[in-house]
Design a protein that fits this description.
alpha/beta; Rossmann fold; seven-stranded parallel sheet; 12 strands; 13% strand; globular; oxidoreductase activity; KR_dom
Length: 352
């Protein structure tokens, strides 16, 4: 008798080799050709790769982000790869609903409608709760949750007019399904995004809504993340885990999986085996999962009253200050692939 895991693996491998499954995927993705798409948070990292994948499939793409210079680099990269593609860039802060309204309206006017919207804008704050305050929670909620709310509410009227029904994707996180220590504001905002996606999917009849919950991905985002508390130690552990191949996922592969799920109108996508395992464990044994995360918190940098709590700083500013040899070795151990991803996916530019 074969173990259940072997049966699941065999079934998954047979699906991957099944020409019909591959043809179905290709057909779903080819249906995006000529469609109009908007990607928020699209100037770097995962957002840039999502925009790039949509351009590869023949979409007319509007890329939005807050940083004008970073956005110009992203637009040049996309146009350079596909000189005949219709690529637009627009500065937009998703915390401002009027700015999102203008983004959606101008994209629809420029491309004759709107068919696909991916709400990806986000921030990452890494610190123990003792080292942060209400402002960090507010910033996370304003950017990731209210940014998704603004994007969804402004785009849905256009998506409902899309031929065959539009597609909306909200990028959440496994952190919104299982709260990791030292990422509490991020997890709170992402859990609200998960609830929003499920609620919209239940009520929408014309537009498919896909909730995407990635685990760790090698996007180079450790350089743009904000670190508080013992900033060097926080940066070291986060960048190491985010770049470890067994725990993290190649970002280009993740982008392909996400766009395929949107094309196929999937309800929910959880990426990486570790993220799926955490999601399953929390659903089956939530109390045990919380105990496990509490144990993980014990080995993370201390955030007690004796720890100095300087102002949070971006990873690109913290990196040169990581002087302790143990921390430098920890960072070097897991972050080489993530550092290369930062160079490849426009994460090196300094933000204003």
């Amino acid at each position: 008798m074969y173990p259940a895991s072997a049966v699941v693996r065999g079934h998954t491998m047979s699906q991957a080799r099944n020409p019909r499954n591959r043809q179905d995927r290709d057909r779903a993705e080819s249906a995006l050709a000529g469609r109009s798409a908007v990607v928020t948070g699209g100037s770097r990292g995962l957002g840039l790769l999502l925009a790039e994948r949509l351009v590869d499939l023949g979409c007319d793409v509007t890329v939005a982000a807050r940083d004008r210079e970073e956005l110009a680099e992203a637009g040049g990269r996309l146009s350079g790869r596909h000189p005949t593609a219709r690529v637009r860039t627009q500065v937009c802060d998703v915390t401002d609903r009027e700015a999102v309204r203008d983004l959606v309206r101008s994209a629809a006017e420029a491309h004759g409608g709107l068919d696909v919207v991916i709400a990806n804008a986000g921030i990452i704050q890494v610190a123990p709760v003792e080292a942060i305050g209400a402002d960090e929670f507010r910033a996370a909620v304003d950017t990731m949750f209210m940014g998704s709310v603004h994007t969804a509410l402004e785009s849905l009227p256009y998506l409902r007019r899309s031929a065959g029904g539009g597609r909306l994707a909200l990028i959440g996180s496994v952190g919104g399904l299982v709260t990791p220590p030292h990422l509490v504001p991020y997890a709170c905002a992402k859990s609200a995004v998960a609830a929003l996606a499920e609620g919209l999917r239940a009520e929408e009849e014309q537009v498919s809504v896909t909730a995407v919950h990635p685990g760790l991905m090698r996007t180079g985002s450790h350089l743009a993340a904000e670190f508080g508390g013992d900033r060097g130690a926080e940066f070291a552990w986060f960048s190491a885990l985010a770049g470890t191949p067994v725990l993290s996922m190649d970002a280009e592969r993740a982008a392909r999986r996400i766009v395929r799920a949107v094309a196929r109108r999937r309800t929910r996508l959880v990426l990486t085996p570790a993220a799926r395992a955490a999601d399953l464990a929390h659903g089956v044994a939530p109390a045990l999962t919380v105990r496990a995360t509490a144990l993980a918190a014990r080995v993370l940098p201390s955030g007690g009253p004796d720890t100095p709590h300087p102002e949070p700083a971006q990873g690109r500013d913290v990196e040169p200050a990581v002087a302790h040899p143990v921390l430098r070795r920890l960072r070097a151990w897991g972050s080489a692939l993530n550092d290369r991803a930062a160079d490849a996916f426009n994460e090196r530019r300094r933000h204003a």
